[in-house]
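Can anyone check this?
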Amino acid sequence: MKKLKTLFSITLIIDILATAPLFLMIFVPAMKEEMVYSQFSGMAENELAKEISDLFHFVFAFIAAAMVIAVAASIRIAVLEAAKTAAMLLFIIHLGWVLPDWVNLVMGSAHPPVPIMLLGTIPVIALAYGWKKGEI
């Protein structure tokens, strides 16, 4: 499984699954209530906190969409060095995406469920592997 196209495809599928809740929260308020407001006491009653949370999730949804588009575009790269460079850059972006959750877990702060965190870490590992040992 050294083919960069395969590693990018795995990353793309997991990214779509992992970022889908961000988009769903925009259109399904009940999902937002369960995933966000129930985790932070008093947030559901504070209109300013809800507005900030909505903006936060809106911005992160677009960042996630850009990440998914970048991975999808990387699948078509046919030059080994360019594909490895793309894998390295996407690895850095994905690491920045998942690292805060792991730091929060270690510090005992709020974090997603561990199975979800493990799922989100698979693209980081796949991209790091592709960067170092990938083939076209």
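Reply from J.R.: I decoded it. The CA atoms of residues 9 and 75 lie 7 Å apart.
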